[in-house]
Each structure stands twice: as C-alpha cells, then as structure tokens.
Specification:
- The chain crosses the membrane at residues 72-93, 105-121, 127-145, 157-179, 199-221, 233-252, 258-279.
- It comes from Streptomyces albospinus.
- This is Integral membrane protein.
- Residues 1-34 are annotated as: Disordered.
- By secondary structure, this protein is mainly α.
- The protein has one domain.
- The chain contains 12 helices and 2 strands.
- The protein starts with a helix and ends with a helix.
C-alpha cells in the first residue's frame, strides 16, 4: 500500500505538556486551548470520550433504514448495508490514526461489496462459506498491496493489521444480508435504542445497564411485531451488547469528530451483524 496512504498520523501531544504561551503584538499572553482528552488526562480522568448523541442518532437512522428494508427484499436491504460498509471502512482507518488511506479504504469497502454480491447470488445457508471465502481472498489482496509499501517495518505492520481488520469488519457487516429478515429487524431496533440510551449523560454503570435494558426491551417489542416472540429479548440483548462494544472501541484515546461520525456510527451495527445472523438462525 502506498506510503502516503497508510502512514499513521503522528501521536497527539501528551496532556501533561504545558501549552506554549503566545504573546500577541500588543496584547496579553494567551495559551492554546487543550483538547478534551488532554484536559481529562490532566485532571486524572479517563481520556476515553464516547461518540455522543449525534453519532448515536445517525446510528439509529441507519438502523431504521435496515429494519425497514429487511422485510422487503435482499437487494433493497443491500443499499443501507453498502452505506454501512463504506462508513465502517473509512472510520476504522481514521480510528487507527491513518488518514488519508484511500487504497486501504477502497480495498476494504470492495471486499464488503463483493461479499454482498456473492450473498445475493447464494442461499442463506451458504453465507458462512461465502464470507470466509471472500475474507480469505481479501487477506491475500491486502498482503499483496502491502508489498508496494516502502515505509518502515513497524508502519507496514500497522498498515497491514488495519487493512485486514477493516476488511473483516466490512465483510461482517454483510451478515445483515444473510440473516433472517425478522432477526434483522429485531437486531436493528435493539442497536438503535442501545446506542441512544448509552448517549444519555448518566453515570457510566447506570448508562450501561439502561442501554442493555433498552436493547432487551426493543427486542421484545420488535419480536412481537415480527413473530419472534419473547425470544426477541435474547437477540436484542446480544445485539445491544455488541453495539456497546462497538461504541467503546470508537471512544478512542485521541478521538476526533470524524472518528465519532464514522466509526462511532458504523461499529455498533457492524459488530452486531454476526450476533443477528447466528441467533436469528438459532431462535428462528
């Protein structure tokens, strides 16, 4: 992969570094404002900053699109899934401090789209083989692309792991196409409510419990509408738990608005896709 496209961004300044004073031409001494994560470190708090309400709202909108499209037809569902894969691929590279990374993002996104096309052409039960086959081919493509990278050994390894992980996440997001439509509706509803509940400014433990309860409640409600019944609570709880893991991953040490509006939006739905597929088949 080209060096310019995959070189990690430089580390953010440590919170303990005092801001450099800057004297205006005819004014008082001013200091550069600290970033939120730097202030948190200086105050002894965690520098992990959750994405917040705006990314959670976008996740809920994307989940709603998936839930509405799921009962219609797989080609219709493919539209929001492709959007999810695009945001996932871009967000993961930026989350790892790599920007721009056009080749890596394009390759990961293409892996997800290839999986979508293959899933549309095969029965539901062949989805695991399709996903594994596509992921195996894409691992080889990522390795071949890295042969063009003339960066240092550490940077090449960093770029390789980011490319492989991004491709795997894009392929995992395709699980929405392979899952039972009723399970997709239940999982999408659970992810939407879990992310919204987690964004409410409450103590961490309280917020976590409320988010999981909201996911289970959404699973029950959606289960009644789709015919899954009370088993929707189990699926909703699992999907909501995966969504919260995605939010935690997106709460990067040095977060940016771009990270929150991409990885923070996409990872909850992308990580929930395998749970929706597996539990949908088991409980269906």
């Amino acid at each position: 992969m080209a060096t310019a496209g995959m070189t990690p961004a430089g580390p953010a300044p440590a919170a303990t570094t005092a801001p450099q004073p800057a004297r205006a031409a005819n004014g008082p001494v001013t200091t550069a404002p600290l970033k939120p994560n730097q202030i948190a470190r200086a105050e002894g708090r965690s520098p992990i900053i959750p994405p917040g309400i705006q990314p959670a709202a976008l996740t809920a909108v994307l989940a709603l699109l998936i839930a509405v499209a799921a009962p219609l037809a797989r080609p219709v569902l493919c539209v929001p899934v492709v959007l999810l894969q695009a945001v996932t691929a871009a967000g993961w590279f930026r989350l790892n401090g790599m920007w721009p990374a056009r080749q890596g993002i394009a390759l990961a996104f293409l892996g997800g789209v290839t999986t979508d096309v293959a899933l549309l052409a095969t029965p539901h039960e062949d989805a695991p083989l399709v996903a594994l086959g596509t992921l195996g081919v894409w691992c080889l493509l990522v390795l071949v692309l890295q042969l063009r990278n003339r960066s240092s050994a550490d940077e090449r390894m960093y770029a390789l792991t980011a490319g492989l992980t991004s491709s795997a996440l894009a392929v995992l997001a395709s699980g929405q196409l392979a899952a039972d439509p009723n399970a997709v509706v239940v999982g999408a509803a659970a992810v939407a409510l879990a992310t919204l509940a987690r964004a409410v400014p409450l103590p961490s433990v309280v917020s976590l419990v409320i988010a999981l309860l909201a996911a289970a409640g959404a699973g029950i409600a959606a289960g009644q509408l789709t015919g899954m019944g009370q088993s929707g609570a189990v699926l909703g709880l699992a999907a909501g738990g995966c969504a919260l893991i995605g939010l935690r991953v997106a709460s990067y040490d040095y977060p940016s608005r771009f990270v929150h509006m991409t990885a923070g939006v996409a990872l909850p739905l992308a990580l929930a896709a395998p749970a929706v597929y597996v539990l949908g088949r088991a409980l269906g």
